[in-house]
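Give me the fold.
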Amino acid sequence: MIPIFQPYSTGNEKKYLIECAETEWFSGKGPFVEKFEKLLSDYIGVKYALSTSSCTTALHLALKAIGIEQGDEVICPALTFISPIHMVSLTGATPVLVDIEEDTWNIDPQKVKESITNKTKAILVVHAFGHSAKMDKILNIAKEHNLYVIEDVAEALGATFEDKNLGSMGHVSCFSFFGNKIITSGEGGMALTNDVGLYEKMSSLREYGSNKEEKYLYDDLGFNYRMTNMQAAVGLAQLEKLDEILIIRDRQLSI
C-alpha cells in the first residue's frame, strides 16, 4: 500500500506538547489554539480563522453560517470524500453532484452553470489531491447568480491559483489536519473567512450556539466542534515547517 502522505514531525511538536502538560492547558481555548489560527490566517491571507475538531465540522459550520437549510441545493463535485455530501445533507439541503474535468479531477465550471436552479444557494468546491479548481470561472458564476462559495482545501494547503492561495477566494474555506494531510494535528480542521459576520456566526455555533456577550446564554442550536490546545500545539509546530514539508512532499511525488 502506498500512503497518501506520512506525517513529518521534526519541529517543535514535542516541545509544545510538553508546554501543554506543564501548564495543564489541555482542552480548547488555550494559547496554542490562538497561535495556530493566527499563523494559518496570515499564511493564507484571510482575516479570520476558527479552529475546529475536523474539516468535516468546519464544513458544517460554514454551511450553517451562510444559512443553508431544508429546501436549498448545494452544488458539489461528484468526485470527493463523503464528508461534504454528509454535511450538506445534515443541514437538510440537497447536494447536487456535478461531474469533474478529466484533466484536473475538479468540478467542471460549465456543468456547475448548467446545474443551477432557483433553489441553488452555494457551490462547494473541493480542490482534489492538491490541484486547484478553476476558481476564476467558479467565482464569476457565483457572482452572476448570487451564490456562496465554500472552498474545501483539505488536500491542498499551500497550493495556489493564479498566485492566490487556495482558501483565500471563497466566502469560507475549510482545512483538514488529519494524519494523512499535508500537515497534521492528529485530528482537526480550520474554517477561514474575510466576513466578520460569518466568523462570529461560526464561532457561536462551534460552542453550542453561545452568546458573545454573556456566558451560559445561548442564541442558537449549536455544537461542540472545538479543537484542543494539544491538537493546536502539534498543528502549530507543523505549520511552522510547512514550506519544508511541501518540498519533501514534492520530492516524494516526483520519485
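The chain has a mean pLDDT of 94.
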